[in-house]
Design a protein that fits this description.
This protein is mainly alpha-helical. The protein has a domain at 44-80. It has helices at 4-16, 25-38, 47-61, 66-77. The mean pLDDT is 75.
């Protein structure tokens, strides 16, 4: 399993910089704002609360396995719903 080497290195680096995680909060907020303004139309009213509930449940289920949590968050961010679509294309959002 040579493919887990880079993932393990990423996880180890994130855990080593745990005290700097709050510094990434503005970056995450700016990314969320950019994602919001890149949407072709307003998201459903329950989309935000539903995403928060899913991520909280995922974090609670995987709290003792930070590697799996990182993989799960990466998989969610790579889902088709998170990809930008060309203008005028039909989609679930």
């Amino acid at each position: 399993m040579a493919t887990l080497g880079p993932l393990r290195a990423l996880i180890d680096g994130l855990e080593a910089d745990r005290e700097r995680w709050p510094l990434w909060l503005p970056v995450g907020m700016i990314a969320g704002i950019a994602l919001y303004f890149s949407l072709p139309r307003e998201p459903a009213p329950l989309a935000g609360p539903a995403a928060v509930v899913v991520l909280l449940l995922l974090a609670a289920a995987l709290r003792h396995r930070p590697g799996l949590l990182a993989v799960a968050v990466a998989a969610l961010s790579a889902s088709p719903l998170s990809r930008p679509r060309p203008p005028g294309s039909a989609g679930p959002c």
